[in-house]
């Protein structure tokens, strides 16, 4: 029986671009290029490695996002994923993590899965809670923040490096897994992979396909509301000195004046 | 007065600082009721009472150590049902965020993570967050259910505010789901004797300019003179000069200490994402054009191999 792996990926604004909020206080996607979240590349990589180890496996990449988000799916397909699912619906605009996770969970159930893999956090919202929420919604174990992961004999095992301890975890499939940037460098798509990706199937779903009402998602349906977003005032220019032999002492003087010493 | 549930992060009863900060914020919203779980939970009560907990709910069971996250979610849910609080506050550790998130799903509430400030509003608590590598500050609310909010370390002062702190045992019965993910083994991280990176008041970080694992001793010596934690940029971590657990940045840890000292770090956007909310920023770098200097309160253009040891000596002599 084929191992069904679903990788949740996110299309995010490029962190090196000029990221800002739109008038409705959602992330402005028009003025800055988007890409596959770097932390999700690690999830795609681990999914591909798990598939390579399995007798038979299929890797589906899944995203919820606007038309452009197809770019993130194409990148994952060109790395080697087999097929993609894109949930796109105008009513999704402004969905928070609870709303988005509802959509992802329904799409994952519809697709069918043994393992769900995600990155540890997105590089835009950086909440880091989506994998745990998906596990809760799907009612399956969470095996999260793994720096090493293995799937065999119907089980997922892995290492989780926490603040105070390193833990070895184990759960039965189906399960939700998230991986850190320590799980292993993500591969670059080959030319062959990029060409092959163009022919791979991308299934499009909307809210009605998932039996979700518009009121449950989007800005209005979300569980949180952003009341204001203000650009932080540029820092007032600090004091900069050139070291001419006394730089360390001058810095100590500054630290003392600020009561740090 | 409304009760505010505060999840306690502790190690064998020793309450970690971010929880004490949380109690300061909780008192702005109502009366803090602390929930301490696991080994030594009851021992945490005096410190919690000292900082404003009117009540301390405690529970211990083997499940908390033997299975991942879910047993703690179920205990916090039991506390939520016993108390009917106006909000639930949890420290923004990796585990804290997962616990908060799953609780939020269970009680049908929205979640806000990594708040850097919290105040009472007409429609419930208003959380301040920083977004896009701290280039924006947002104010948000939970609009459905009982607000569940996680708060970053160093977001509020620790204040003594003695309260009753009456200890009550919390009854928890675990569902099958609590046994989903087994913790097969646990290896405690070796203590460096330094403060934990995300909660330290001062962080001293080294980057590419440190130029080798052997030179990180300079950074550590400066950190020790200040009682600081040690951080590293991704370049230094990727080069294998310092452990990943100390990485500050987009794919590492986010810190917001009172003082951040960057040595030999140019200040790429990915690094700034992890440290830009630091209250005071200091940099030492040979390159006067390094973007880090745009952020600093005080910068020294110079060779860190000259400046850092001199600074360390000066700190030591001033501290006597």
Structural description of this entry:
The complex is a heterodimer of chains A (261) and B (320). Chain A has 261 residues and is an alpha/beta fold. Chain A has helices spanning 38-53, 70-79, 97-111, 130-138, 191-197, 218-221, 247-257; strands spanning 3-8, 11-13, 34-36, 57-64, 83-87, 115-119, 142-152, 155-161, 165-172, 175-179, 202-205, 224-231, 239-242. In chain A, β7 (142-152) and β8 (155-161) form a beta hairpin. Chain A is globular. Chain B is of the alpha/beta class and 320 residues long. Chain B has 9 helices and 18 strands. In chain B, β4 (31-37), α2 and β5 form a beta-alpha-beta unit. In chain B, α4 packs across α5 and α6 (216-226) packs parallel to α9 (304-319). At the A-B interface, α3, α4, β7, β8 and β9 of A face α5, β7, β9, β10 and β13 of B. β13 (239-242) of chain A pairs parallel with β18 of chain B.
A few lines on this structure:
Chain A is about 30% helix and about 30% strand. With about 260 residues, chain A is of the alpha/beta class.
Question: What attributes does this structure have?
Answer:
heterodimer; A: 261 residues; alpha/beta; 9-stranded mixed beta sheet; two-stranded antiparallel ribbon; 7 helices; globular; B: 320 residues; 9 helices; 27% strand
Q: What is the tally of beta strands of chain A?
A: 13
What pair of chains forms the biggest interface? A-B, 79 and 92 residues
Distance between the termini of chain A: 65 Å
Shape of chain B: elongated
Tell me the Rg of chain B in angstroms. Answer: 21 Å
Quaternary status? heterodimer
* Poorly predicted spans of chain A: none
Average residue-wise pLDDT of chain A = 95
Count of β-strands of chain B: 18
Give the SSE map:
The complex is a heterodimer of chains A (261) and B (320).
Chain A: E1 3-8, E2 11-13, E3 34-36, H1 38-53, E4 57-64, H2 70-79, E5 83-87, H3 97-111, E6 115-119, H4 130-138, E7 142-152, E8 155-161, E9 165-172, E10 175-179, H5 191-197, E11 202-205, H6 218-221, E12 224-231, E13 239-242, H7 247-257
Parallel strand pairs in A: 1-4, 1-6, 4-5, 5-11, 6-10, 7-10
Antiparallel strand pairs in A: 2-3, 7-8, 8-9
Chain B: E1 3-7, E2 10-11, E3 14-15, H1 17-29, E4 31-37, H2 45-50, E5 55-59, H3 63-66, H4 70-83, E6 87-91, H5 94-107, E7 111-115, E8 117-119, E9 126-131, E10 136-142, E11 148-151, E12 166-169, E13 181-188, E14 202-206, H6 216-226, E15 229-232, H7 234-238, E16 259-263, H8 269-275, E17 280-285, E18 298-301, H9 304-319
Parallel strand pairs in B: 1-4, 1-6, 4-5, 5-12, 6-11, 7-11, 14-15, 14-16, 16-17, 17-18
Antiparallel strand pairs in B: 2-3, 8-9, 9-10
């Amino acid at each position: 029986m084929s191992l069904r792996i679903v990788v949740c990926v996110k299309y995010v604004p490029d962190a090196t671009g000029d990221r800002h909020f739109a008038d409705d206080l959602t992330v402005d996607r028009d003025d800055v290029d988007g890409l596959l979240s770097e932390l999700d590349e690690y999830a795609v990589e681990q999914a591909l490695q798990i598939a390579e180890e399995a007798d038979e496996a299929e890797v589906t990449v899944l995203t919820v996002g606007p038309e452009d988000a197809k770019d993130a799916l194409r990148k994952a397909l060109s790395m080697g994923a087999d097929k993609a699912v894109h949930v796109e619906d105008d009513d999704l605009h402004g969905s928070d993590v609870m709303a988005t996770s509802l959509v992802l969970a329904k799409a994952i159930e519809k697709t069918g899965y043994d393992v769900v893999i995600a990155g540890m956090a997105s590089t835009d919202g950086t909440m880091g809670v989506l994998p745990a929420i998906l596990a809760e919604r799907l009612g399956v174990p969470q095996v999260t923040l793994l720096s090493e992961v293995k799937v065999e004999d119907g089980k997922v095992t892995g290492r989780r490096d926490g603040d105070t301890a390193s833990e070895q975890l184990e759960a039965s499939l189906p399960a939700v897994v998230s991986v850190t940037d320590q799980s292993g460098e993500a591969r670059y798509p080959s030319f062959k992979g990029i060409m092959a990706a163009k022919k791979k199937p991308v299934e499009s779903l909307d809210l009605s396909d998932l039996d979700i009402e518009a009121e449950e998602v989007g800005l209005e349906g979300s569980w949180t509301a952003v009341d204001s977003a203000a650009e932080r005032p540029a820092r007032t220019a600090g004091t900069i000195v050139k070291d001419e032999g006394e730089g360390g002492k001058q810095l100590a003087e500054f630290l003392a004046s600020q009561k740090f010493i | 007065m409304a009760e505010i549930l505060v999840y306690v992060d502790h190690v064998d009863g020793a309450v970690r600082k971010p929880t004490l900060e949380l109690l300061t914020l909780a008192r702005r919203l109502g009366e803090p009721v602390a929930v301490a779980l696991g080994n030594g939970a009851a021992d945490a009560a005096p410190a919690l009472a000292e900082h404003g907990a009117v009540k301390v709910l405690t529970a211990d069971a083997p499940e908390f150590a033997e299975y991942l996250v879910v047993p703690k979610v179920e205990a916090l849910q039991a506390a939520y049902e016993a108390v009917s609080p106006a909000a639930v506050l949890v420290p923004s550790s990796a585990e804290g965020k997962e616990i908060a998130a799953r609780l939020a799903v269970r009680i049908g509430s929205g979640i806000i993570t990594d708040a850097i400030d919290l105040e009472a509003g007409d429609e419930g608590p208003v959380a301040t967050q920083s977004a896009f590598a701290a280039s924006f500050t947002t104010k948000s609310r939970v609009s459905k259910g009982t607000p569940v909010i996680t708060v970053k370390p160093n977001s509020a002062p620790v204040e003594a505010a003695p309260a009753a702190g009456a200890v009550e045992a919390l009854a928890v019965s675990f569902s099958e789901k609590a046994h989903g993910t087994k913790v097969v083994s646990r290896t405690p991280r070796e203590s460096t004797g330094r403060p934990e990176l995300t909660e330290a008041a001062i962080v001293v970080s080294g980057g590419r300019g440190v130029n080798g694992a052997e030179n990180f001793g300079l950074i550590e010596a400066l950190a020790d003179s200040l009682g600081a934690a040690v951080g590293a940029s991704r370049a230094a971590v990727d080069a294998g000069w310092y452990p990943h657990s100390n990485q500050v940045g987009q794919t590492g840890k986010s810190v917001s200490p009172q003082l951040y000292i960057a040595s030999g770090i140019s200040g790429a956007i990915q690094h700034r994402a992890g440290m830009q909310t630091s209250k005071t920023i200091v940099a030492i770098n040979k390159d006067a054009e390094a973007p880090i200097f745009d952020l600093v309160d005080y910068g020294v253009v110079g060779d860190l191999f000259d400046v850092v040891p001199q600074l360390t000596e000066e700190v030591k002599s001033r501290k006597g």
